[in-house]
Amino acid sequence: MSARLSAEQTIRLTPEETKALWEAASDLTRSEDVAELDADGVTELACALTPAFPTRLLRALHRHRRGAGHDALLVSGLLPADQEWGPGPRGSAEPLTGPAQAAALCLLGVSLQLGEPFTFSTFYSGRLVQHVVPVPSMEHTQTSESSSGMLDWHVEDGFSPDRCDHFGLLCLRGEAAAHTRFVSARDLELPDEVREVLSRPVFLMEPDTAHEMADRSPTATAVLWGPAEAPEICYDAHYLGPAGRPDGEEARALRRLAAELDAKRVEHALAPGELLLLDNRRTVHARTPFQARNDGTDRWLLRTMICSSLPRFREHGVRVWPSPHGAVGAGRYGGTGAAPHGATTSGDGAR
Ligand SMILES: [Fe+2]
């Protein structure tokens, strides 16, 4: 039995607030073609939306940013629920067109309250805002382009020490069968001996297939570590494996964790206009299967990733980072590309 988002994890804009924000975003797209802007340009344009955000949304986002909440925040009514979006894109990396440009600005405007939006050049052509749509032939992959296959428990880019701190999923078009699931690491109930095994930075995480990159070497990581009241987690049901024997204590600890994730899951089917923000250092997420129609009317989300550490963001020097294996960070991890990043924390400037 799954749980639902709590009242503390949800904020709903009034119809008047939604209308005012949408008009402000639409005005911006009338003055500039978002598709013509580079990643910095579109982010800067989205900054102009801040005055259109209700104060209580800004306060809720600040609570989420400082980790005082429940590691997830659902913003309802960020977009008008009755907006016509037209046919959906055919792939994750298609350019933003029509009213989806204004929606992308709303997503980036909110994201800027949590840090700096960024992406990797290896990920869907380096688009700062990606479409999350089902793609023919990808139905059973472990990517956001899947549909009829279960997208199993994972964190975004768990193989990378530079993975995002937060990410946002903004729903333009919903799908009743597609439930987004998540679990906060702080809600996991595990025996101390299992926690101890999972805290060892010896598990191996491979890059997922959404990244187009030559170096697909695995990264060493811990799975669950940190203080009991706010632990961090790095997990993937498909790409993470035990360093030791398949019947060893590390493998058993992973199986115990997988069962606990299923037991503690929170589940929500995103509806039009809703934005789900998840802390990617403290939650694991998944998506249930659904049937794609492939006729332009399928489920359609916009996604962006957020770096909440300004020093780490500035270290890269650009908004589209060249390598998730950490070209900048190679020196930090001895140049091996194998970062025992469970031993670090994601705090601002901690890396
Ligand atoms: Fe994901």
UniProtKB/TrEMBL annotation:
InterPro entries: Clavaminate_syn-like (IPR014503), TauD-like_sf (IPR042098), TauD/TfdA-like (IPR003819)
Biased composition (Low complexity): 338-351
Limits of the TauD/TfdA-like domain: 142-305
Spans annotated as Disordered: 331-351
Keyword match Protease: no
Alphabetical keyword list: Iron, Metal-binding, Oxidoreductase
Keyword Iron set for record: yes
Family statement drawn from the similarity comment of this UniProt entry: Belongs to the clavaminate synthase family.
Protein name: Clavaminate synthase family protein
Species classification: Bacteria, Bacillati, Actinomycetota, Actinomycetes, Kitasatosporales
